[in-house]
Amino acid sequence: MNEADAMPGTRPASKPLTRGEMAARAARDIPEGWYVNLGIGMPTLIANYVPFDREVIFHSENGILGMGPQPEPDKINRWLVNAGKQHVTLRPGGCYFHHADSFAMIRGGHLDLCVLGAFQVAENGDIANWATTSESAPAVGGAMDLCVGAKNLWVVMEHTTKAGESKLVRRCSYPLTALGCVTRIYTNLAVLEVTPEGFVVTEMIPGLSFQELQSRTDAPLKLAC
Amino acid sequence: MIDKFVRSAAEAVDGVKDGATVLVGGFGAVGQPLTLIDALIEQGAKDLTIVANNAGVGRVGLARLLDLGRVRKVICSFPRSSDPVVFEELYKAGRIELEIVPQGTLAERLRAAGAGIPAFFTPTAYGTQLADGKEVREIGGRSCVLETALQGDVALVECWKADRWGNLTFRDSGRNFNPVMATAATLTVAQSQHVAELGALDPETVVTPGVYVDRVVHVPYGDP
């Protein structure tokens, strides 16, 4: 069974969400009519969970609006890839444009939402998602442009690293991608808003207490009223 | 009679000098002018600065140009790929310079060069390592970084159809950096999948007007 297919109801209480479940949870909150850019990795999965009849228009940095799902293996168009260089399709109504127009769209504030992965998000909305000190050659792609340009910036990421370190921090220790721009975070344990008062928890997985969530989080948390 | 078509890829890249800044279109492998890159490898220019979104895959094309030691510096947004072996080797050995540029800033620096704008302010990268040493100014309540135009000596682009005046159309996401790079170089060279008779391209579909294009070479390699 694919992890993305796991049914929430079959999980024991307090089991962290899978990557597919996190993507599905974020997808639920995207309204019809929004223009949305999904970062590579887990955010890309979100498109799989937006029903076709809820018309969300996906943007890809390399010049696509109205990007559709992966093609059937015998219908691949090798001229049509997404930002992660995976083959995709174009929905009816979709269109193409060049890179400078694509980033003018991003930087000009025309996209309603961007969803990115991250190494760390700080309580003031700073995001670090492009480089860690261990990497040899850094690579930034379009992350810095998306962070400052999108009207809403959501992050989808595990709550902690594999070593158990919190990814929601007081101040980012990794190189910053952008300052004060993250508005909401979906983790495998909770949904949090980034507010002037710091992280506010709006949702937790069943069976997890606020104290348990706080104990796995470096930055102080508040519970939404 | 104007005819920008040349007979061979070798002729298309003739005259590229050592030390040149070469803009290379494409996003990953899509829309990359592979035949022109191979011709540049044969042509022999060295000490090049390559401007491209990526820094090559495997050991062919751009990666081979790097592997042959012909590139002094890479200016790109994302040097990683599914197989960035050559770039990683050179980078770890300290044998290549790397300038990382946010992808939108890269596109805009090229656009600015093509549009005669020497520099511009943008909020992108403010407060990050990529703004180190750059002038910062607060404009309209936002902190912005001064970025300069990125002009090429040569642009190598790939298109779908071209006519003898150098009007170009593109295919799907193969458009990517190609049109903006075509505007930003002293010498713009296009490899085209198809040749169109003058007047056969619907003027509404021309993405790159021929004013930006100096040479075109016909490189058919099959429809999708």
UniProtKB/TrEMBL annotation, chain B:
The keyword Transcription regulation does not apply. The keyword Repressor does not apply. PANTHER family: ACETATE COA-TRANSFERASE SUBUNIT ALPHA (PTHR13707:SF60), KETOACID-COENZYME A TRANSFERASE (PTHR13707). Belongs to the 3-oxoacid CoA-transferase subunit A family. It comes from the Bacteria. GO terms for molecular function: CoA-transferase activity. The lineage of its organism: Bacteria, Pseudomonadati, Pseudomonadota, Alphaproteobacteria, Hyphomicrobiales. Keywords: Transferase. InterPro entries: 3-oxoacid_CoA-transf_A, CoA_trans_fam_I, CoA_transf_BS, NagB/RpiA_transferase-like. This is 3-oxoacid CoA-transferase subunit A. SMART domains: CoA_trans.
